[in-house]
């Protein structure tokens, strides 16, 4: 436990971070080790190239979107705090959480997780998934295996099904509604981060 | 059977009285001696040409079998005609009661009621139910909870067996009970027979209460997977009780045996599954026998593993699960419906017969009653189940992301029903066991208790506790796309964390499947089709079929083309103008029609939603209207040509495009202008 404490002392504002995200000291240390492993040039910040070096991410159809999600708009680098905050979305949901309306929504609640996923679709951040954005996602997931017409019909069908207010785009509420049968707490949690 | 002999005698009396010459052929063998001799001495005068001859023995066996099945199904029919009854009492209870009545009736006539023959049960009645369950096993919830299910199945069953066996042995030691002759191994054997949750009973009861998916898959999965444990324990204790002593080596071998039985069963099932998938690759010219391959390979898997004393149930499940994705990519839509229909039908018949025979066997079977033993068994069953579930859930919840609530635990504990498998295993016990009759009686009592008391009360309890029910959902393309997206997202995030977790291995398996396995097992070019496209195509196909049935024939044209558009290969394009028209029509239809999907129902009673049938009748109304409009249409000639082509394709059950059709159509396009 001594090494944990020594590592923790290296991180500024670690108490606040743990409070905000709900990670235990052991997790913070594990994530810090990972952060340092990715940060090859030891600058204390991660750049897109560092993420790109992860092989598994490179093979991933939506890898570039995931990388993009770590970087706040306008920022070129990610520090440890932002890194942890993003990963906190994938913590399994806490069972006993008092429904306190004054407290902000915890970062690993169902709504927050869905919002995170929604933002990956909605690249231009206008609060809606437009047909074009949907097509982009489909194109990256289905790679070279389909023709444009197929993509278009699928996109049409998808929007038709989900779009309740007929604005030809999927808002966050519609997105949430179309996933109401899916157990998001289970689907978007990584056990490792409990 | 002899009831009919008597009936025939009576009939003959009547006919002889009237004077018609009747020839009764001498029966080949007599089952119950006496009556037979009367049959031959009829007329010793010159025989007239036999106008009417009765030869019952000739058809006796198939006749009796058919009659039993018919009786069973008529009973089933009867229950559903009495609305209030089927809402309160689960079907399994009613069937057992019918069995009791029939058994009583047979006994009153003075005959021996037939007992549920273990061989008949294990080889004929059980496989269809298990295959039905395995083929339609919902894979996603199963694999998500497989750890929990295995813990319940293996450790839970072991706990039940030893707890019950041990305590019953302690009971038998008490002088006042009068069973001091029973040794520990016999008790443990009994414990292992009665401890396993029965899939038939669970299915029968849970079918009707529509509980939420998680609890359903937990109890159901447990009932399927505990077969390996039961087989091993049963064989083990049977062997041991013959020998009399147990050594450490024996225990160790027992553990090894467990792994061999379960993994061996799965392996055998998987091999047959791959064989079935491979065979289905070549069936494009002989569509009619496709379903038979599915059934036969699965049955062979079951028989082969039973031959080696491996777990037949696990083999059957593995076979169904392995072959399903590939077979479904290869076979026609009609074959799929046939398979689904036949499996539901056979499993329904089997289940009905099993419960009726249970009732009859109760009346028939040799009974030895000992109040203390039987009552204690029942109580211990409940107690050990509850303790087992609570204890295991406490441990399991530490590892689960979505924890099991107290309500879930209650239903899992309460839903642990025992059934015909326990009875058959008990019946298989050789007569050398002096306690056999007592054990059988106790087993039957436990089965009755669980099926009647627990089966009947579980539904009101579910309502009372407001346990989450199953949400009927039609598959939506949104869900498919978003879940696949989330899969990729989670794999990526695992990569960022440097964690080789659940998603990483799932991704690896998918990749392996796509590059190697699908290539061999899926016919034609389809193996390259991404899952999303296959899903979408099925949705469109369903809608296209509905449109064809509704008679909106101009739409048939776009449907078939949009089908063919979804092929991965390049196909000669339709003109841009036509495509726009097509898309417009499709979109209009999307907005008009309600989308009915192939419902993922595992229900024994319904195959289609009620809504779909309403839709079809409404659709027929529209059809007549369309008929009129069609006559006026300018495209009538071309439409009738396409109509013929579509019906050809429909008959083949496939919507695969043929390049020649497209070419011909292209030419048609040209000349029709």
From TrEMBL, chain A:
Its annotated compartments are: Cell membrane; Cytoplasm; Nucleus
Query: What's a GO cellular component annotated to this UniProt protein?
Result: cytoplasm
What are the record keywords, sorted? Calcium, Cell membrane, Cytoplasm, Lipoprotein, Membrane, Metal-binding, Myristate, Nucleus, Phosphoprotein, Protein transport, Repeat, Transport
Question: Where does it primarily localize?
Answer: membrane
Gene3D superfamilies, sorted? EF-hand (1.10.238.10)
Domain EF-hand: start-end pairs = 109-144, 150-185
**Does the entry feature the keyword Protease, yes or no?**
no
A GO BP term here is:
protein transport
Which InterPro entries is this protein grouped with? Calcineurin_B_homologous (IPR051875), EF-hand-dom_pair (IPR011992), EF_Hand_1_Ca_BS (IPR018247), EF_hand_dom (IPR002048)
Which terms does the record give in the GO molecular function aspect?
calcium ion binding
Q: Which family does it belong to?
A: Belongs to the calcineurin regulatory subunit family. CHP subfamily.
Q: Which PANTHER family match?
A: EG:114D9.1 PROTEIN-RELATED (PTHR46002)
- What's the protein called, per UniProt? EF-hand domain-containing protein
Q: Which organism does this sequence originate in?
A: Oncorhynchus tshawytscha (Chinook salmon)
TrEMBL record, chain B:
- Kindly state which keywords UniProt assigns to this record, in alphabetical order: Antiport, Cell membrane, Glycoprotein, Ion transport, Membrane, Phosphoprotein, Signal, Sodium, Sodium transport, Transmembrane, Transmembrane helix, Transport
The record's principal subcellular location, in a coarse class, is: membrane
Membrane topology (UniProt): Multi-pass membrane protein
Gene Ontology, cellular component aspect:
basolateral plasma membrane
Q: Which residues cross the membrane?
A: 65-82, 88-108, 120-137, 149-172, 184-205, 217-237, 249-279, 299-322, 343-365, 371-397, 409-427, 439-462
**Gene Ontology molecular function: any one:** potassium:proton antiporter activity
Location(s), subcellular: Basolateral cell membrane
Question: Record's family?
Answer: Belongs to the monovalent cation:proton antiporter 1 (CPA1) transporter (TC 2.A.36) family.
Under Gene3D superfamilies, the record lists: 6.10.140.1330, 6.10.250.1040, 6.10.250.2020
Record-annotated Cation/H+ exchanger transmembrane domain positions: 69-463
Q: Which domain of life is it from?
A: Eukaryota
Name of one Pfam family that matches? Na_H_Exchanger
Q: Does the keyword Transmembrane helix apply?
A: yes
What protein is this chain from? Answer: Sodium/hydrogen exchanger
Ranges for domain Sodium/hydrogen exchanger regulatory region: 557-632
This protein's gene is called slc9a1b
Residues in the signal sequence = 1-19
Question: In Gene Ontology terms, what is a biological process of this protein?
Answer: sodium ion import across plasma membrane
Q: Does the keyword Iron apply?
A: no
């Amino acid at each position: 436990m001594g090494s944990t404490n020594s590592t923790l002392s290296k991180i500024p504002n670690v108490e606040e971070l743990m409070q905000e995200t709900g990670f235990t000291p052991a997790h913070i240390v594990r994530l810090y080790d990972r952060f340092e492993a990715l940060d090859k040039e030891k600058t204390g910040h991660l750049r897109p190239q560092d993420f790109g070096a992860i092989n598994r991410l490179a093979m991933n159809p939506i890898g570039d979107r995931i990388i993009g999600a770590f970087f706040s708009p306008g920022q070129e680098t990610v520090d440890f705090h932002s890194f942890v905050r993003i990963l906190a979305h994938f913590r399994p949901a806490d069972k006993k959480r008092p429904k306190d309306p004054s407290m902000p929504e915890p970062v690993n609640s169902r709504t927050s997780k869905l919002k995170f996923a929604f933002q990956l679709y909605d690249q231009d951040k206008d609060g809606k998934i437009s047909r074009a954005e949907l097509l982009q996602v489909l194109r990256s997931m289905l790679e070279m295996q389909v023709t444009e017409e197929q993509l278009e019909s699928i996109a049409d069908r998808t929007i038709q099904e989900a779009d309740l207010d007929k604005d030809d785009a999927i808002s966050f509420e519609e997105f949430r509604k179309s996933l109401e049968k899916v157990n998001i707490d289970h689907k978007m949690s990584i056990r490792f981060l409990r | 059977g002899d009831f009919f002999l008597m009936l025939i005698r009576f009939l003959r009396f009547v006919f002889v009285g009237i004077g018609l010459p009747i020839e009764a052929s001498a029966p080949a063998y007599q089952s119950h001696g006496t009556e037979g001799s009367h049959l031959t001495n009829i007329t010793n005068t010159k025989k007239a040409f036999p106008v009417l001859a009765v030869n019952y023995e000739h058809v006796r066996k198939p006749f009796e079998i058919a009659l039993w099945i018919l009786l069973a199904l008529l009973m089933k029919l009867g229950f559903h005609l009495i609305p209030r009854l089927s809402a309160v009492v689960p079907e399994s209870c009613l069937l057992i009661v019918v069995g009791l009545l029939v058994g009583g009736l047979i006994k009153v006539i003075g005959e021996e009621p037939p007992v549920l023959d273990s061989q008949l049960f294990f080889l004929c009645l059980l496989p269809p139910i298990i295959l039905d369950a395995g083929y339609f096993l919902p894979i996603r919830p199963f694999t998500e909870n497989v750890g929990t299910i295995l813990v319940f199945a293996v450790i839970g069953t072991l706990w039940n067996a030893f707890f019950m066996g041990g305590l019953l042995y302690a009971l038998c030691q008490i002088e006042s009970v009068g069973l001091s002759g029973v040794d520990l191994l016999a008790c443990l054997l009994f414990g292992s027979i009665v401890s396993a949750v029965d899939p038939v009973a669970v299915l029968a009861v849970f079918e009707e209460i529509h509980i939420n998916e998680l609890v359903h898959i937990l109890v159901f999965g447990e009932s399927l997977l505990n077969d390996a444990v039961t087989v091993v324990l049963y064989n083990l204790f049977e062997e041991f009780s013959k020998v009399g002593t147990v050594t450490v080596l024996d225990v160790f071998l027992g553990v090894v045996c467990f792994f061999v039985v379960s993994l061996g069963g799965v392996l055998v099932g998987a091999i047959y599954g791959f064989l079935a998938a491979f065979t289905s690759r070549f069936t494009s010219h002989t569509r009619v026998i496709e379903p038979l391959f599915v059934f036969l390979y699965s049955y062979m898997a079951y028989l082969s593993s039973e031959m080696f004393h491996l777990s037949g149930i696990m083999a059957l499940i593995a076979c169904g699960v392995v072959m399903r994705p590939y077979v479904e990519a290869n076979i026609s839509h009609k074959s799929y419906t046939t398979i689904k229909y036949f499996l539901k039908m056979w499993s329904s018949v089997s289940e009905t017969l099993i419960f009726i025979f249970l009732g009859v066997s109760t009346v028939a079977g040799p009974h030895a009653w000992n109040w203390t033993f039987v009552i204690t068994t029942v109580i211990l069953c409940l107690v050990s189940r509850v303790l087992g579930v609570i204890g295991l859930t406490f441990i399991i919840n530490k590892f689960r992301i979505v924890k099991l609530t107290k309500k879930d635990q209650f239903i899992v504990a309460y839903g642990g029903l025992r059934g015909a498998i326990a009875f058959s295993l008990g019946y298989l016990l050789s007569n050398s066991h002096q306690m056999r009759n007592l054990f059988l009686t106790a087993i039957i009592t436990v089965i009755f208790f669980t099926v009647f008391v627990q089966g009947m009360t579980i539904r009101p309890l579910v309502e009372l506790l407001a346990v989450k029910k199953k949400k009927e959902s039609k598959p939506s393309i949104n869900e498919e796309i978003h879940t696949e997206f989330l899969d990729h997202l989670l794999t990526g995030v695992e990569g960022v964390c440097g964690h080789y977790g659940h998603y990483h291995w799932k991704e690896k398996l998918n990749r392996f499947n796509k590059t190697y396995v699908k290539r061999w097992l899926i016919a034609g070019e389809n193996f390259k089709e991404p899952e999303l496209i296959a899903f979408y195509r099925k949705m469109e196909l369903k809608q296209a079929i509905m449109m064809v049935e509704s008679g909106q024939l101009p739409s048939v044209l776009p449907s078939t083309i949009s089908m063919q558009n979804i092929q991965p290969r390049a196909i000669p394009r339709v003109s841009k103008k036509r495509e726009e028209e097509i898309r417009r029509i499709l979109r209009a239809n999307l907005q008009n029609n309600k989308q009915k999907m192939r419902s993922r129902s595992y229900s024994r009673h319904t195959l289609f939603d009620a809504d779909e049938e309403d839709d079809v009748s409404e659709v027929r109304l529209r059809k007549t209207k369309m008929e009129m409009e069609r006559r006026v249409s300018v495209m009538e000639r071309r439409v009738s040509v396409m109509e013929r082509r579509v019906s050809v394709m429909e008959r083949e059950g496939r919507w695969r495009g043929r390049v020649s059709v497209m070419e011909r159509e292209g030419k048609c396009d040209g000349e029709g202008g």
